Amino acid sequence: MTTEQRPLGSPFSATSTAEDVMAGLDLSGATAVVTGGYSGLGLETTRSLAAAGARVIVPARRPGAARAALAEAESSGCDVVPMDLTDLDSVRSAAAHIADSVDRLDLLMAVAGVMATPERRVGPGWEGQFTANHLGHFTLACELHPLLAAADGARVIVNSSAGHTLTGIRWHDPHFRTGYDKWLAYGQSKTANALFAVHLDTLGHDDGVRSFALHPGKIITGLQREMTLREQIERGWVDEHGTVIGAGFKTPSQGAATGLWAATSPLLDGRGGLYLEDCDVARVSAPDEPMDDGGVRAYAIDPDAAARLWELSAAATAATPVTR
After folding, report:
1. Closest C-alpha among 107, 134, 117, 119 to residue 53
2. Distance separating alpha carbons of residues 206 and 77, to the nearest angstrom
3. Which phi-psi region, left, alpha or beta, contains residue 49 (left: φ > 0; alpha: ψ -120 to 50)?
4. What residues does 219 pair with on adjacent strands?
């Protein structure tokens, strides 16, 4: 476990917005890929990067909806590429399309995700949340790695969650073949996101590709679309009208801030493989600490677990190898 997993004293905080983090930054000439970049935190991320001058490519399961959302957000100049994270052939096709259109990639931001979905089997019977949140992004990052390595100091930013505290990787049954629990499946996929960033950084840092995972905070976005209103009310997130009432919830702009800070902050130069929250590096949390107290569990940044998950993921997906 890295000894650098501790706060740096960032000038930003949990209340900082995307606008705060991006103020005065010029990303002209930079190219970014933002998965999920047409809704929720992804749309805030895309809009902020494009406003700073970056070219933004948005892989989208629903290209028409993506183009409409980006036009409404006045980011219609962004490129939309069809891609379904649960279909690895689609992921490879999107990566090939991107490789045909750019010669380098400065940022890969894995913002897309699903949460607490009903049981779904995809591909060869894989569990849907693990596939959409982890295996799809794993494949995309591997296929795009040559473009990242061609840039001068590329960063890969992976949206994890405090939900990683629900469980580590279920090595004995990662696809829940012995019984499905939607929250444990979500938690495992978020632990996988964090571990993926750890080992990708190990493999990529000699090429200047640094990787980070993060918890964006509690935000009501389309991520909750598979949950009923009653479930959200019972958890204290919203009232009967759907209005956010939960303590500590962020706006979408505040939720996008940590990812944008990860993508641009000079405080992270020369660093990588870290888990971030509230626009800073997170501390390591104890096994019995409540999820809402913040921090990252040691098992989610363990380098041996990260290497093991990488091997499992590479064998499952047959993704293009990333070598040191």
Report:
1. 107
2. 33
3. alpha
4. none
The closest of 3, 52, 4 to 256, measured between CA atoms, is: 52
Pseudo-torsion of CA 69, 74, 78, 83, nearest 10°?
Answer: -10
| Alpha-carbon dihedral sign for residues 287, 291, 294, 298 | positive
Q: 55-60 and 31-35 as β-strands: parallel, antiparallel, unpaired?
A: parallel
Name the residue among 42, 110, 29, 97 with its Cα closest to residue 75.
Answer: 42
On whether the CB atoms of residues 52 and 27 are closer than 8 A, the answer is yes
Local confidence band at 233 (pLDDT 50, 70, 90 cut-offs): confident
Cβ 115 vs Cβ 224: under 8 Å: yes
Q: How far apart are CA 324 and CA 321, in angstroms?
A: 10
pLDDT tens per residue, range 264-282: 999 999 999 999 999 999 9
pLDDT band (50, 70, 90) for residue 236: low
| Contacts with 227 (C-beta within 8 Å, 6 or more apart), sequence order | 115, 116
Percent residues over pLDDT 70 in the chain: 92
Residue of 38, 180, 186, 299 with catalytic role: 186
Question: From CA 59, how far away is CA 75, in angstroms rounded?
Answer: 14
Q: Which of 265, 317, 313, 251 is nearest to 92 (CA)?
A: 317
| DSSP secondary structure letter of residue 244 | B
Asked whether the whole model's pTM tops 0.85, one would answer yes
Task: Judge whether 275 counts as a catalytic residue.
Answer: no
Q: Which residues contact 253 (CB under 8 A, 6 or more apart)?
A: 17, 18, 19, 44
Calpha distance 293→275 (Å, rounded): 15
- Which structure tokens are listed for 198? 């750890």
* Contact present, 196 and 158 (Cβ < 8 Å): yes
Whole-number pLDDT of residue 240: 78
d(CA 312, CA 298): 20
